[in-house]
Specification:
Residues 147-210 form the VWFA domain. The chain is of the alpha+beta class and 626 residues long. The strands form eight sheets. The protein has a six-stranded mixed sheet with strand order 14-5-4-15-18-21, sandwiched between helices. It folds into three domains: 17-141, no CATH class; 165-207 and 397-452 and 468-472 and 530-620, Rossmann fold, CATH 3.40.50; 224-312 and 337-393, no CATH class. Strand 19 and strand 20 (592-598) form a beta hairpin. The chain is built from 13 helices and 21 strands. The chain is elongated, with a radius of gyration of 36 Å. The longest helix has 49 residues, at 12-60. Helix 2 (12-60) crosses helix 3 (68-78) and helix 10 runs parallel beside helix 11 (531-551).
Length: 626
């Protein structure tokens, strides 16, 4: 029977075809399912890449982290071309929010439901395969950007030789700073897809900071004279209507205006430090005798001095923070420095630059110093101009701030290099004011707005402070020249600088407490008028400034240059600089490996270059590339 069956040729083709159809249809079914599964996985991968990239951008732009999972899922859905979202499980992993760089990783667990595979597996006697797990992920490397403020000491002591290096400290600093810029600039050049990857600002400081004379009309400057410190040394009651009906000033809503016909075209205009710079005139010397005395004077009066760009420290607490300037809060505005003409009658003042003897009609030093009509005489005086270190620009000795500039392009690097090369040492040391302006240059808000928003992730804001001395503010009696020590007839208790005078003597002011002691603790006496106490007060300003900056996630690096632990004031400065410094994210304290290392370097003239290379290594480790 069986032999007949195999021998019978009738219907064999149909039978063989039917038998062959089982594996053929199974293979076709698997192929169809595989093709569909591959298509869905490809759709998921494309959507995953798009969602991961968009989420990374949203993360860096500062979108709150709790909103990002929903953002990623919605972006994935829009780009998934109809995938069943009920079968997709997304997981988002973000980097450490406190540091730059890192990755954003988006993982998708996709469930694929095959069409024919369940039937085929059942025919083969297996458990029906109704779902297949498809896993995929997309990872976006965040390119960290850097904004670095170089806050560099330009005080007079920077003209000393650096330790045993036989080079001036200022020259050693210039070389080390430029090398650091070059190192980071080369790394920035590799980040072609990132806008402004590495930016530097340069903030030279001495006894004050120069923001640049081009900012006179900036909204953050006190153009109306409404700051509580704007008229600190001016006694406008000496120009009242009762004294001269044809040339007086009037306060309207906190702003002083010129009144009276003798002002000419200036009548009814505002009167501020800015207008005083513009309007004070004199007859200049056109030829001198062999001994330097003037032989001939000009016949036309010209402007006496231009504002060079230095500003005073804001009143407490705004001197130690980054509160945006606003006319709604006048104390937050920045006031141009204007050193008063000091009385020289029977005295040797540190800054007497304008004739006041005959016009004031008094020998009282306070009255002569704050007497305002002397700056607006009917006939301009015959005196030399004041565009250097004396006059209203006294203590304004540094070059101007260079705002954040992209050094990954040659033109930007050239600007920063030129700013470093242009520094010249002259003046006292006011580290708090230098650091405050360093912070302001990397900030996103006014005065300087070149910095990225603070909410933007993957961006580090760094302030590097380098100084070779303790904070200094001088009494007149501690300074002088071959003619002798300077006198202090008006009782200012200090020379004029960014903090103004330590004691206010202007008639009409309700307090004699200057800004030196504002915001200090009870351990600082506000009646102790000596250099050491001024240093102690400025040290407290510096500490608060450091704490405030680090609380706002500013990375602070500090360098003590040629400071000695054997000198009490310098030892205190070393300790302060170390406490001010932020903790390293990558290095451990060699003395205590359980703690991070401090971003502080106690440098000498010989080690400064190597220490700046270590700073470069630290900044490079912030995942500037990856």
């Amino acid at each position: 029977m069986l032999r007949k069956f195999w021998a019978d040729r009738r219907g064999n083709y149909a039978m063989l075809t039917a038998i062959a159809m089982v594996p053929l249809m199974g293979g076709l079914a698997v192929a169809i399912d595989y093709s569909e599964m591959t298509r869905e996985r490809s759709q998921a991968l494309n959507a995953l890449d798009a969602a991961a990239l968009a989420t990374a951008r949203a993360y860096q732009a500062g979108t709150p982290e709790e909103q990002l999972p929903a953002f990623a899922e919605e972006f994935f859905r829009i780009n998934s071309n109809g995938l069943d979202m009920s079968k997709v499980d997304l997981t988002l992993a973000l980097p450490n929010a406190d540091t730059g760089g890192g990755t954003v990783k988006l993982t998708a667990d996709l469930k694929y439901s095959p069409h024919f595979l369940p039937v085929l597996t059942s025919l083969l006697g297996k458990n029906a395969v109704t779902e297949i797990d498809l896993g995929a992920f997309s990872e976006v490397q965040l390119k960290n950007t850097l904004e670095v403020a170089l806050v560099l000491d330009n005080s007079g002591s920077m003209s000393d030789k650096g330790g045993s290096s036989n080079q001036l400290r200022i020259d050693l600093l210039k070389a080390a700073a430029k090398e650091l810029v070059s190192t980071l600039a080369k790394q920035g050049e590799q980040m072609k897809q990132v806008s402004q990857p590495v930016q530097f600002s340069v903030v030279p400081f001495a006894s004050s900071v120069n923001v640049g004379s081009g900012y006179e009309e900036a909204t953050w400057m006190d153009r109306d004279g409404i700051s509580p410190i704007h008229h600190e040394n001016f006694d406008w009651s000496t120009m009242s209507k009762a004294k001269n009906v044809n040339k007086y000033v009037e306060n309207v809503g906190g702003v002083w205006y010129r009144r009276g016909k003798d002002w000419g075209t200036q009548e009814n205009g505002k009167i501020t430090r800015f207008t005083m710079y513009k309007e004070m005139q004199h007859y200049s010397c056109t030829a001198t005798n062999w001994n330097g005395s003037c032989r001939t004077w000009s016949t036309t009066a010209v402007k006496f001095a231009n504002w060079k760009g230095c500003v005073e420290a804001r009143p407490s607490p705004y001197n130690v923070d980054d509160t945006p300037p606003s006319s709604a809060t006048p104390a937050t505005l920045f006031v141009p420095m204007f050193a008063p003409d000091e009385s020289s009658v029977d005295a040797n003042p540190e800054n007497s630059w304008w004739p006041d003897g005959s016009i004031t009609g008094t020998t009282n030093h306070v009255a002569r110093q704050s007497f305002m009509p002397k700056y607006f005489p009917g006939t301009p005086p015959q005196i030399a101009s004041s565009e250097t270190t004396d006059g209203p620009n006294k203590s304004c000795s540094t070059t101007a701030i260079t705002p954040l500039t992209d050094v990954s392009v040659a033109a930007g690097k050239a600007v920063i290099d030129a700013a470093i090369d242009g520094m010249q040492p002259n003046g006292a040391t006011n580290v708090p004011e230098g650091m405050a302006w360093g912070w302001r240059t990397v900030s996103s808000g006014a005065p300087f707005t070149e910095g990225r928003p603070e909410s933007e992730k993957g961006n580090d804001k760094v302030v590097i402070v380098v100084t070779d001395g303790a904070n200094t503010y001088y009494t007149p009696g501690s300074l002088g020249d071959w003619e002798g020590r300077y006198s202090d007839g008006a009782g200012n208790k200090s020379v004029y600088s960014a903090l103004g005078y330590v004691k206010l003597v202007t008639p009409g002011y309700t307090t004699n407490l200057g800004r030196m002691f504002q915001g200090t603790s009870s351990s600082i006496s506000n009646t102790n008028y000596d250099n050491a106490n001024y240093t102690a007060a400025m040290n407290e300003h510096f500490k608060k400034l450091c704490d405030n900056a680090k609380a706002k996630k500013i990375m602070v690096m500090t360098v003590a240059l040629d400071l000695s632990n054997s000198k009490p004031a310098e030892k205190t400065q070393i300790e302060m600089l170390k406490k001010c410094a932020s903790d390293s994210r990558f290095r451990k304290d060699p003395d205590d490996p359980s703690k991070p290392a401090k971003l502080f370097w106690n440098s000498t003239g010989k080690t400064l270059s190597d220490d700046f290379k270590k700073i470069g290594d630290e900044l490079s480790n912030l995942r500037i590339v990856g």
